[in-house]
Amino acid sequence: MLRFLDAGESHGKGLVAIIEGFPSNVEIDINRVNLQLARRQRGYGRGERMKIEYDQVEILSGIRGGKTTGSPISMLIYNKDYKNWMDIMDIQKEYTGKITVPRPGHADLNGILKYNLNDIRNVIERASARETAIRTAIGAICMELLNKFDVKIVSRVLRIGKVEDLSRVDMSAEENIKRIEESQIRCFDAKIEKRMIEEIELAKEKGETLGGEVEVIAYNIPCGLGSYSSYDRRMDYIISGAIMSIQAVKAMEFGEGIMASCSYGSEVNDEIIVENDYYKRSTNYAGGIEGGITNGMPVVIKVYMKPIPTTRKGIKTVKLNGEEAISRYERSDTCAVPSLGVVCENILAFEITKEFLNKFGGDSIEDIRNSYDFYLKRISRR
Ligand SMILES: Cc1cc2nc3c(=O)[nH]c(=O)nc-3n(C[C@H](O)[C@H](O)[C@H](O)COP(=O)(O)O)c2cc1C
Ligand SMILES: C=C(O[C@@H]1CC(C(=O)O)=C[C@@H](OP(=O)(O)O)[C@H]1O)C(=O)O
C-alpha cells in the first residue's frame, strides 16, 4: 500500500517526507518534480515569503541512477527563510517573544488549547500551508509513474473572489494548458485575468484577502479505481478527504454535483455508450466516478478556498489572558488560489497513484504494466 509521512515547520530547517510502497524501476526526472514546486510558488497574490523561498527537492534515498529502487523514498525541501528565524526556531533555547493573540480563521486558538501550549508560534508552524510544498513534491513523484500510463492532471482558476472565468475550456488541449500556465492567475481568459488581478490589488489596498475556486481534471484514468465494497475504498471518499485536508479549502464538488442536485434524474445521469472499443459516457456530469469507482471518464473536481485568514485589517479576538484584542499581522498572502490548483493536482496524483497500485499491484513498473495491459484488454469490447 502506497503511503507517506511528512513533517517540518514553516520556519524550521525544512520539510521532510518518506514515501513507502512506491514500485521499482520508475524513471524519475527531478527537474519535473522541481517544476511542480516552482508552479506552486507562482501566481498573483502571494506575499513576501514566496520571494524568499526557491523550493527544490533533495532526494535522500529510494532513487538511484534516475530510477526508483522499490525502497522508501525520503526527501527534503529546505526553508530558505530559516536563516531569518534561527533564534525563534531554536530547538533548545526558549524564545521569550511568545505569540498570545490568536487569529480568527487560523489554527491558533484550537491548537493552543488542544496541545496545552503557551506560545501560538508552536501551532502556526505546523498548521501553515507551507506543508503543501512537500505534499506537492510527493504528488510530483507519483506523477512520474502516472505519466507512463498517459495520465495527465491539469487545473485552472475559475474564480477569484467574485470575479469568474466562465470560458468553456478543453483542458486536454496542449495550447489551452499553455495559455493557463502563462497566465499570472492560472485562468484562461486574459481579460478576466486582468480583472482578477485588479480584484486582488483592491483587496490588498483594503487590508483584505480573497479566496476562490479552481477546477482540476485528471485525464486517462482507467475504469476500476476505488470500490463500492466499503465506504473507505470509495474513490470519492478518498479524493475528498485528501482535497479537504488542504489548508483553507472549505468545499469541493465532483463533476456537476451541485447542478445535479437540482435537476431531474434523466437529465444528469450520463448515458452509456461505446467509443473506440471501450464503454464511455456521452456526458460527464458524474465527474468520472460512479459507485465509488472511476468509470473511465476524466475525474473532474472543483475546489473552493476561503479567503486567507491573516488580514492586515484587524479582526476582533481575545488574548490568551482573556483580554479583548485585535488580531495581529506580520505578513501574509493576499490570495493563494492559483497555488491551490497546483497543490490539488499533485495531491490528486498521490491518491490516484495509491488506487492505481491497489488495482494493478506489482513491485516493479514492469509487473504493473503487464497487469494494466491485461486488464485494459479484458474490459475492451473488441
Ligand atoms: C497555498 C496556500 C497558501 C496560504 N497562505 C496563507 C497565508 O499567507 N496566510 C494565512 O493566514 N493563511 C494562509 N493559508 C491558509 C491557512 O494555512 C489556513 O487557512 C489555516 O491553516 C487554517 O486552516 P483551515 O482554513 O483549513 O481551517 C494558505 C493556504 C494555502 C493552500
Ligand atoms: C510558506 C508558504 O505559505 C505560507 C502559508 C501560510 C499559512 O499561514 O498557511 C503563511 C505564509 O507564510 P509566512 O507566515 O512565512 O509569511 C505563507 O507564505 C508556502 O506556500 O510555501
From TrEMBL:
GO biological process, one term: chorismate biosynthetic process
InterPro entries: Chorismate_synth, Chorismate_synth_AroC_sf, Chorismate_synthase_CS
Gene3D superfamilies: Chorismate synthase AroC
Recorded metabolic or biological pathway in which this protein acts: Metabolic intermediate biosynthesis; chorismate biosynthesis; chorismate from D-erythrose 4-phosphate and phosphoenolpyruvate: step 7/7
Keyword Amino-acid biosynthesis: yes
Catalytic activity from the UniProt record: 5-O-(1-carboxyvinyl)-3-phosphoshikimate = chorismate + phosphate
MF GO annotations: chorismate synthase activity; FMN binding
Sequence positions that bind NADP(+): 40, 46
Pfam family, one: Chorismate_synt
Main EC class the enzyme belongs to: lyase
Cofactor binding, per record: Reduced FMN (FMNH(2)).
Binding of FMN, residues: 126-128, 247-248, 291, 306-310, 331
Keyword terms of this UniProt record: Amino-acid biosynthesis, Aromatic amino acid biosynthesis, FAD, Flavoprotein, FMN, Lyase, NADP
Subunit structure: Homotetramer.
Role this protein plays: This reaction introduces a second double bond into the aromatic ring system.
Protein name (record): Chorismate synthase
UniProt source species: Fervidicella metallireducens AeB
